[in-house]
Amino acid sequence: MGDAYCSDCKRNTEVVFDHAAGDTVCSECGLVLESRSIDETSEWRTFADDSGDHDPNRVGGPVNPLLGDVGLSTVISKGPNGSNGDGSLARLQNRGGDPDRALVIAFKAIANMADRLSLVSTIKDRASEIYKRLEDQKCTRGRNLDPLVAACIYIACRQEGKPRTVKEICSMANGATKKEIGRAKEFIVKQLKVEMGESMEMGTIHAGDYLRRFCSNIGMNHEEIKAVQETVKKSEEFDIRRSPISIAAAIIYMLTQLTDSKKPLRDISIATTVAEGTIKNAYKDLYPHAAKIIPEWYLKDKDLKSLCSPKA
User: Fold this and answer.
1) Could you tell me the pTM of the whole model?
2) What pLDDT does residue 154 have?
3) Cα(139)–Cα(192) distance, rounded to whole angstroms?
4) 10, 34 contact by CB (below 8 A)
5) Which of 114, 154, 200, 262 has the fewest CB atoms in 10 Å of its CB?
6) Mode of pairing for the β-strands spanning 23-26 and 2-6
7) Could you tell me if residue 91 is left (phi over 0), alpha (psi between -120 and 50 degrees) or otherwise beta?
8) pLDDT of residue 61
9) What per-residue confidence (pLDDT) applies to 185?
């Protein structure tokens, strides 16, 4: 029972939900207010036998268009002959082999790594698509899976405009080194170039792409994050020949020096995965332009003299 507005009664009345028909009916005049409504309540069922198991599974996995059977194939459970499945049928199915077995393993590895990196589903799907294109060319056999998966995620992040550093991905790559991931990335780009007949679009990296995540790792407040973003945008007007990630780290370091709770260089290095020496070099290039790139509203109650000299 619940309340809803009835167009015949011209007021809110009690309604009855007919779950079998999916109808919402006015209890006073009998008017069907809504038909074929979707029941959003739990619909779990137990398909276990009398062995004491309580398996709540009711459906299989989601449809996956990248698999040959779209993920809708039937798997015969293993077990003794009888209620737990036919062992002979399971053996026959295994003997036939699964052509998508390697893809399923790779997609699981991509999903696990994407979850550990807190990546959105669009990046995970793009990485899976890249790996599927490699598999279609039959060029993954004999290659280490972990660097390939990590490289697919790295490329997918760049293509989706949410880049991650190689160090960030390497930390979640099950032992794959930066060099291995770099080689795998070059291999993927080369193979897909052969497939498409042109260079694969990787997406341009800007310093601003890393800011939100880096600032969050350091614990900066909203005002400080806004100042960092504006500083990075103004720094693009100058010829600072440093990588986007090192510029982002150096600007964060620069602005934290203007606050009461100054962050040591080591903390910035850990949060941004950029070496301390690299941050120092980028900071040295940015320091002469500090008065021009840092927003005026942020400098109102701060003194630029508190910035440490690059020579220090």
Assistant:
1) 0.67
2) 93
3) 11
4) no
5) 262
6) unpaired
7) alpha
8) 61
9) 92
Q: SS3 for 165?
A: coil
pLDDT greater than 90 at residue 17: no
Q: How far apart are the first and last CA of the chain?
A: 73
Length of the chain, in residues: 312
| Dihedral of the alpha carbons of 293, 296, 206, 112, in degrees to the nearest 10 | 140
Average pLDDT over every residue of 47-64? 56
The helix (H) or strand (E) run that includes residue 284 is: helix 276-286
Phi, psi of 121 (to 5 degrees): -65, -30
C-beta neighbour count of 54 within 10 angstroms: 7
What SS3 state is found at 118?
Answer: coil
Angle ∠(163,144,112) on CA atoms, nearest 5? 50
pLDDT above 70: residue 57: no
Which tokens in the block code for residue 69?
A: 């059977």
Average pLDDT over residues 34-59: 59
Nearest alpha-carbon partner for 165 in 176, 150, 186: 150
Q: What is the pLDDT of residues 133-158, one digit of tens each?
A: 998 888 888 889 999 999 999 999 98
Tokens of 12: 């809110």
Tokens of 116: 């550990």
Provide the token pair at 74: 């039937």
